[in-house]
Amino acid sequence: MVYIRAKKVKSDLYLYLVKSIWDSKKSTSKQEIIKYLGKADNVVKDDIPEEFRNDAKILSVLASYNPKDIQKREDATLKSKQQLYKKLTDGNLDECIKIYKNYIDVFNIPDFFDKIFRPVMAKIGEEWSNGRLSIATEHVASNVAQTLVKIIVEQISGAGNKKKIMICVPVGEEHHIGCDVLESYLTIKGFKVFNMGTSIPAESIIEFINMKKPDILLISITINDNISAGQRLVKKIREHSKIPILIGGYATQIKNPPKFEAEVVGDASLEEIPKILRKIVLPN
């Protein structure tokens, strides 16, 4: 049985999608969290995993937390996604910046990345992969998207908790927008971020780890063909360092992600990433 559970923290409600599992040893049921959904009055239908998204009971409970505004938020989100897709594929950076600014005036930066930017970039990638979008248009959209993220990063000033996060991609991975998005969001949350940007040899990554001594390494993989390169990269790093490693990116956002000598967090939202990081690098 899958349902929504609410947890109150101070004066705010936070929602979780959970399922009941029968514990035969204790002869009782226990709850297992499927996904943290976020603050109750910010959660919309798209936050629900696809396999549960049309469950009438779940949608009914979700709507009960904010019945007046939930449809307005969903409409605004859909409109922003449609606009951003068009302006990215048109190569119109100025209009993309306006869409971003208009959205965060009402919502926030994490929501922009999670609910607008990531789905739009995934759609562009899928349409290019399926031949519905030309390679030239995909390159234009990617270049504008990277510039947009850089502009957002430049506007951010984090307080800084002195924990160092290194982000990189395996050799052959040319898509690093995911790294730029992570850099901007983690900077907001106060982490010091080393974003390697483009792919470099494993030896250079290991050298950087030894020199800068980051607290954790994040590896982003967008293209399925680069999964093997990512696995080799992790294996080489493991031969020289015990640094905690998290694997994410579009290529890992599937039901049965590939195995790594590291933790795969492909389905984690941006909002969940800092919590995962703090659990690892700021243990109680």
SSE map:
Blueprint: E1 2-9, E2 12-23, E3 28-39, H1 56-64, H2 70-90, H3 93-106, H4 109-129, H5 135-154, E4 164-168, H6 177-188, E5 192-195, H7 202-212, E6 216-220, H8 227-238, E7 245-248, E8 263-264, H9 273-281
Parallel strand pairs: 4-5, 4-6, 6-7, 7-8
Antiparallel strand pairs: 1-2, 2-3
Helix pairs in contact: 2-3, 2-4, 2-5, 4-5, 5-6
Summarize the entry for a quick read:
This protein has 284 residues and is α/β, with parallel strands linked by helices.
Fourth-level CATH superfamily of the largest domain: Cobalamin-binding domain
Q: Any idea what the CATH architecture of the largest domain is? A: 3-Layer(aba) Sandwich
Total separate domains: 3
> Which percent band covers the strand fraction?
15-25%
The biggest sheet amounts to: 5 strands, parallel
- Class inferred from helices and paired strands: alpha/beta
Secondary-structure element sequence? EEEHHHHHEHEHEHEEH
Q: Find the count of extended strands (DSSP E, 2+ residues).
A: 8
Give the low-confidence spans. Answer: none
